[in-house]
Design a protein that fits this description.
Elements: E1 2-6, H1 16-24, E2 30-34, H2 43-54, E3 58-62, H3 74-93, E4 98-101, H4 111-130, E5 138-141, H5 153-162, E6 169-171, H6 172-178, H7 186-199, H8 201-204, E7 208-210, E8 214-217, E9 220-224, H9 241-250, E10 256-259, H10 265-277
Parallel strand pairs: 1-2, 1-10, 2-3, 3-4, 4-5, 6-7, 7-10
Antiparallel strand pairs: 8-9
Length: 278
């Protein structure tokens, strides 16, 4: 099982080389490298990552935000394909096997427009993965937080069905937000995960989660919440992490969970870890 954080927590005060001992003291063993502005990692940090893999840490990479394989602009897609190839080579160089990416946008937000964009994304992924040695690297399209963004649950399933190297990144907060507060009970959370398991059973075992609470509006995601924060109306932060962890235990899911809680990801991740091992 993997419970970890996205990026360096603001509560950590020290050098990157000391971060993993700090996380380990909190029973955390996962770290998502934030390459959101480019696939760049210093040689020193590469060495630190490789060293901590030997100590039992698991690493994933979050791809740059500007990658947009679902764009209808051919030049944007071409650049995104080239960027993803760079990311795959980087991942291989540091023995990282998971790259998380956003499906993108720029499409006409209609049923037909979204279908065309997803079709193009699938073609793009299959093209560049056939042109490069993937090694052990897998790609994880992530649920999008905005209603207009590509990355609904059905779209993520469609991508993973049709791309050999794609596996689902289920950001439960994004799912809750883009569906305007859908994850209101343990039963609903379980039904979403069961849908994925039924649709792509061969890929469910390597599912990747982002989990935290979120504020949303009529267009979906507004902002990630700090761990323990209530909603603006005073209600408990959603989606309910207790229900989420309970569902994982009931379904015998070996969790790989990264917290993106605002400035408190280690608190949220440790809370979920402790719930899971109870």
């Amino acid at each position: 099982m993997v419970f970890g954080v996205a990026g360096v927590p603001t509560n950590f005060k020290g050098k990157f080389k000391n971060l993993f001992e700090w996380l380990g003291e909190r029973n955390l063993n996962g770290y998502e490298i934030q390459c959101v502005y480019g696939f760049k990692i210093s040689e020193e940090n590469k060495r630190i990552i490789l060293e901590n893999q030997k100590n039992g840490f698991y690493f994933s990479i979050h791809a740059p935000y500007y990658i947009n394989l679902g764009s209808l602009n051919a030049q944007v897609v071409a650049r995104s394909k080239a960027n993803m190839k760079e990311g795959i080579e980087l991942a291989k160089s540091i023995n990282v096997t998971r790259i998380i990416f956003h499906p993108g946008g720029g499409h006409e937000n209609t049923e037909n427009g979204r279908k065309l964009a997803i079709k193009q994304l699938i073609e793009a992924v299959n093209e560049f993965t056939s042109e490069i040695d993937m090694g052990n690297v897998l790609l994880y399209p992530e649920i999008g937080g905005k209603t207009a963004s590509l990355g609904s649950l059905d779209e993520i399933i469609e991508i993973c069905k049709n791309c050999k190297y794609c596996y689902p990144c289920i950001d439960i907060a994004h799912l809750h937000a883009r569906e305007i507060g859908s994850l209101t009970s343990k039963e609903i959370i379980k039904s979403k995960l069961q849908k994925i398991k039924d649709a792509i059973p061969d890929k469910f075992e390597k599912i990747h989660f982002h989990a935290y609470t979120i504020n949303y509006g009529e267009k979906g995601e507004i902002k990630h919440l700090h761990f323990g924060d209530t909603m603006p109306d005073g209600s408990v932060g959603m989606p309910n992490l207790d229900d989420f962890i309970s569902v994982l235990k009931e379904m015998n899911v070996d969790p790989y969970i990264i917290s993106e809680a605002l400035d408190s990801q280690e608190l949220s991740a440790q809370y979920m870890h402790d719930l899971y091992i109870k």
